[in-house]
Prior knowledge:
Elements: H1 4-14, E1 24-26, E2 43-47, E3 50-54, E4 58-63, E5 69-72, E6 82-85, E7 91-95, E8 98-103, H2 106-109, H3 123-131, H4 138-141, H5 153-162, H6 176-198, E9 222-227, E10 232-236
Antiparallel strand pairs: 1-6, 2-3, 3-4, 4-8, 5-7, 6-7, 9-10
Amino acid sequence: MPEGPSIVLLREAAQRFVGRRVLDVAGNSKQPIARLQHRVLKQVRSWGKHFLLDFGPFWVRIHFGLFGSWRIDEATERAPRLRLQFSRGETLAFYACSVRIVDGDVEAHYDWSVDVMDPRWDAKAARAKLRRHPDALVADALLDQDVFSGVGNIIKNEVLHRIRVHPESRVGALPSRKLAEMVEQARVYSFDFLAWKRDFVLRQHWQVHAKTICPRDGTRLSYRKHLGKRQRRAFWCATCQRLYK
Length: 245
């Protein structure tokens, strides 16, 4: 599943299409995608894991789920969910994703203060939301898109290792400084992720995700295929990541 930083990279790459007219629309989406024909793309946005195409009176939300992907000017035999063709034969295509066309102003539809990569990110509000759910596992809390929009499983695993907190710790059991550290690092690591992915070195910086040995103390990492209510993969070090109950 693409995480917030990957969607930011898509937004940057798709900026080239802003101000240009859609000459042809194709795809197997059940949405009325013919509405996009001959429309001018006003802007491209991102909110967490959502990629947004703003056409003025309406906009298109792309959510990639677990298996979605995109291609720019690349031919493939796979059937696209949505493909937009612009002048000079340039294309923007989306595969195995959710497509939704929404009328109205995209700006008013989202709470931008919960997007960890948005300038309007509100860390204080995030801490307040977390305190209202003291029994939640921190592994679940970090994946809550109403608190940390854009944070995915890789960021979750790496942030918890970075701050030395066991994924099965309870939010309400964390000391105030640890709660603040978790909120802060959700944003900091997201921007680290973006920089590393832009330089094609992201995997080289993983400390625990999809790894077997903790680089901090040499302990064999613990692994669970399904952890917490969200049933996501978890990697952690039982030696250096403390369990707060």
